[in-house]
Amino acid sequence: MTVLGPVPVDRLGITLMHEHLFIDLCRVTRDPDHWLNDLSLTVEEVKRFFDAGGRTLVDVTNRDLGRDPLRVQRVATETGLNIVMGCGWYREPFYRQEIYEKTTKQVAEDIVREIEDGIGDTGVRPGIIGEIGCDRNYISPAEERSFRAAGRAHKRTGLSITTHVVRCPAGLDQLNLLEEEGVDLRRVIIGHCCTYPDPNYHEAVARRGAFVEFDIIRSSAEWDMAARVEYVMLLVKKGYLRQILLSHDVCMKSHLHAYGGNGYDYVLKDFSPRLLRAGLSQEQIQVLLVENPISALTGAKA
Question: Which superfamily is assigned to 9-298 in CATH?
Answer without folding.
Answer: Metal-dependent hydrolases (3.20.20.140)
